[in-house]
Amino acid sequence: MKRLIITVSSVLILQNVLAIAAAFASEPSHGLSYFGDLKYPRDFPYFDYANPDAPKGGKMKTSAIGTFNNLHPYADNGIPAQGIDGYSMWIYDRLMVQSQDELSSAYGNLAETVELADDYRSVTFTLREGAYWHDGMPITIEDVIWTFNTLKSKGSVAWKSANKRVVSVEQVGPRTFRFRFDETAPKTRQLAMQMSSFIPLPKHYWKNRTFNATTLVPPLGSGPYRIKTVDAGHRIIYQRVKDYWGRNLNVNIGAHNLGEIEFIYFLDKNIVIQSLRAGVFDYKREFNTDDFATAYDFWGLHEGLFIKKMLKLGKTYGMDWGILVNTRIEKLSDIRVREALALAYNFEWANRVLWHGLMKRNISYFIESGLEATGPPSAEELFLLEPFRDQIPERVFTHEFLLPENSPSGRNRDTLLQADALLESAGWVVSDFKRVNRASGKPFTLEIITSDIAQERMLVPYVENLKRLGISAKLRRIESNTMVNRKRTYDFEAVVQQIWLNNIPNAGWIRSSFLSGNADIPNMQNYAGIKVPAVDALVEKLIFAASEDQMNIAGRALDRILLWSFYVVPGAYPQGRKFVYWDRFGFSPPEKMVWNGWPHLWWIDKEKNARVDAGISALKDSTN
Fold first, then answer.
1. 80: closest CA among 281, 262, 297, 233?
2. Cis peptide before 599 (omega within 30 of 0)
3. Looking at the domain that runs over 320-574, which CATH code has it been given?
4. DSSP string over 354-382
5. Global pTM?
6. What is the pLDDT of residues 276-328, one digit of tens each?
7. Smallest Cα–Cα separation from 164: which of 184, 145, 178, 141?
8. What span, in angstroms and rounded, lies between the C-alpha atoms of 357 and 349?
9. CA-closest candidate to residue 588, choices 237, 242, 99, 226
10. Largest Cα–Cα distance of the chain, in whole Å?
11. C-alpha span between 534 and 520 (Å, rounded)
12. d(CA 47, CA 34)
């Protein structure tokens, strides 16, 4: 009987394995999904949220704070311009385009088909015929191979870290090429999804140029926009490519409608607001809750020509912002000190006085997503955490992460007493109203750096609370170039940092931010200097999860370790994404997407545009 049971169980297991294998069978597909099925069939005409009749042309102006001195996204040095950094890359094409109404699915763009191997050790793409660079030269597999090999040897540190498990690329057919993965990589779709966003560069353009150097010469691209005008540090204008090779692909129908997109750079956020109200530019993503609530009450809003909008979008919020603490600094390597710093922050007062009640307290790195740790750890989380019990705080196993609630009036005596006790237990005592080290007598000093005047105002009360604890705290605002360089070399004690996440956490970002191996490498994002094997293990489990459920379990376990280790003084996150703009535009319904579609799913509405122009012109005439 026992043998029979084992045999039946084995058959059931085999059936499940075969079912899974069939589901992931190796065959060319028009799309690739991280988990589950694709929403769109092979012959879909366009994305549901796109407007195929959107008019083309016109110009949108927007703003940026700071400066730029680089148009090459893969150089470690320099500050890249908006539109060419991170996930923008408007002048280039990706192999596939991610849809905006699915958790994580991508469809063919530069690649016509994708084929994931049965063993998950490689992914094969078919290069679409008829794709060409802006100079008319065809995009070839040779470009793909050259780009990958060049980035492996000369690319940015962040790119190398994100793609370290992708070992090679080779041509396997007239128009097919295959990326091969590290044999030790977990068998999931993560690496295949990662390579679906790969961006080839033109070999013939770069062969006589220094690849890893900064440049202000507009590079050759293939995408829907090219760089038209560059005024270094001041403005950059992108122009729609009218004969863009991919304009009629289903993934691009209804997209890339604006004729030109201009970024105007400012050094002061108050000048940004004044310029927007005066009609100097059209659109702004507003991060400052106080400004959103109070700075745009002017004639344009009253006349219905200017829009203030807060949207609850599907994209996860992440930490949004917090004060990252550099554990490379000896005094900040003590978890008791870091917890005391977190307790000194009075969110309730800030939310009442500074943010008009529009923010929520941040108690997760993955807020409002399936990865957010809530309640005590589940049995599945404990299974992942248990092997590392001696490396991580005991409260990870026993308590939900919560922070004491303070009085909105500003009185937080109880939490400051808790912070005082923690500092004393760590050897930092009060002498003559100053916090000093019990053994050396050295005073406790702390410098917090930011490059944002709004953050400076927001944190003044926090610094005052630190001073009430006897800490000689200083809040220092530095210019953006200095901030970039100090963060690259980890030359700070504490830094105000925004932390964003995707619905599926980006492998490159999450490795750069949390892995031990990146803690001492310049140009990475492990600003806190985290070196914890448990974190390393959970990062890999999160990235290579075979299902959404596994990903969420690993994410929640990771979230608990990060929170209870107090690498960050948790700040706040908005109840929605905030946008302010002149009502010149039409756009796809944002409630159908994980983002608001800006800028590529927006277009100029001629009637609205004329109405806004007339209103601004009339105001100017009346003031002359």
1. 233
2. yes
3. 3.10.105.10
4. TSTT-EEE---TTTTSTT---SSPPHHHH
5. 0.79
6. 999 999 999 998 888 999 999 999 999 999 999 988 766 555 777 899 999 99
7. 184
8. 10
9. 99
10. 98
11. 18
12. 18
Q: What does the pLDDT look like over 222-261, one tens digit per residue?
A: 999 999 999 999 999 999 999 999 999 999 999 999 999 9
Dihedral of CA atoms 491, 494, 498, 499 in degrees, nearest 10, equals: 90
Sign of CA dihedral 95, 98, 104, 105: negative
Both tokens assigned to 447:
């410098």
Give the span between the Cα atoms of 97 and 251, in whole angstroms. Answer: 7
Q: Which two tokens stand for residue 557?
A: 């376990």
Cα–Cα dist 369/436, whole Å: 41
Delimit the domains of the chain by residue range: 21-267, 320-574
Which one-letter amino acid corresponds to residue 283?
A: Y
Angle (CA) 459-462-467 rounded to 5° is: 130
Right CATH number for 21-267 from 3.40.50.720, 3.40.190.10, 3.40.1080.20, 2.60.40.420? 3.40.190.10
168-to-32, 114, 147, 164, 179 alpha-carbon distances in Å: 20, 17, 11, 10, 6
Closest by Cα among 506, 575, 495 to 542: 506
Distances in whole angstroms, Cα of residue 141 to Cα of each of 28, 45, 126: 18, 27, 9
Neighbours of 309 (CB within 10 A): 14
Q: How many CA atoms lie within 13 A of 72 on its CB side?
A: 22
Helix (H) or strand (E) segment spanning residue 497: strand 494-499
Task: Name which of 480, 65, 453 is nearest 284 in CA terms.
Answer: 65
CA distance 556 to 377: 8
How far lies 249's CA from each of 124, 266, 613, in Å? 20, 37, 34
Cβ neighbours of 312 (radius 10 Å): 11
| Residue type (1 letter), 65 | I
